[in-house]
Predict the 3D structure of the following.
Amino acid sequence: MKTGILLIIGTIILFTSSCEQKDPLQAKKAELKAQKKQLQEIKTSITELEKEISALDPDFAKKNRKATLITTANVEKRSFEHYVEVSGAVKSRKNILISAENMGNINRIFVKEGNDVRKGQMIMNMDVELYQRNLDQLETEYALAKTMYEKQSNLWKQNIGTEVQYLEAKNRKESLENQIANIKTQISKSQVRAPFAGTIENVLVKEGEMAQMGSPLVRIVNHRDMYIKADLSEAHIGKFKKGEKVIINFPSINQTIESRISSVGQVIDQQNRTFSIEALLPLTKFTIKPNLLAIVKLRDFEKASAVVIPTKLIQKDNRGDFVFITAEESDELVARKVKIDRGITYKNKTMITKGLTGVELLVNEGFRDVADGGKVKVVENVL
């Protein structure tokens, strides 16, 4: 029996030895697994021993407590500004639709969209044949009336004829003069001219069309007399004055300029409870067109030397706002909870009015994992 058992054991040993020789990788993996298990058992044993010793020796616990990994951020001491941002639009004081003052066929259009025109330049004209006929007839009648008036006037000076005859001749002449002036005015209104220098934005009619009195003919814009208009909530009444600086951004063309407030509205709109402000639009190297969207930034607060920190680092408990800073205590770096009073927040930065002086180091990454008095270790990045 013993001989059989020994034979089986020997066979197993030979088989195992043969397998190890055939697969050394598996053997190394098995060895690594066994050593990891042994290491875990040792770590567990060390942890238990540390707990037991710490319960008996508080100084040992203090020296061997684990540090929380953190990064730090400086408290900034700098100028702090707060801006009100509102949407506005580019407006032009000379952006108008020219409408027909008379009814008539459009004979000729002298401009195209995009053309620059000078003040008084002919844009288009309309048929004036009917007016011209009336004018010719009136001028013929006027020539006769003028002759009759002059003769009657000479006779009246010689005390020949009656005063009524003289007055009738005078009245006839003056009446025809007024009619001729009216006809000439109508003819001049049939010639559409540019009221100011600018650019033809739209031509709304075609040659040969019938223009109705009051119907739009052409839009003309002067790009040199533009401004920004924005509406502010009534909560900002009294905060901004004429002449103050504003920053204007045009998001669609990614351009920013500086300007100044040219006027502040004095009336509150009953519908949206806002008042308007206007800012001058200086000449720019890039193209700006009326109705272009603009974001207007108006500064409503400024402090030359303020304590500023990232808003995200501010926490709150039942006693108020606080942050964690780092402090050297007994040759150890620890986190300390500091109560603060916060001021205005802008662009993820908050001005601190009380609690920080500007020389502290804030606990940045890991600020939610630390405790007051807890040991910390500063690293480049917290994973």
User: Anything to note?
Assistant: The first helix runs from residue 2 to 22. Residues 84-93+222-302 form a domain with the Elongation Factor Tu (Ef-tu); domain 3 fold (CATH 2.40.30.170).
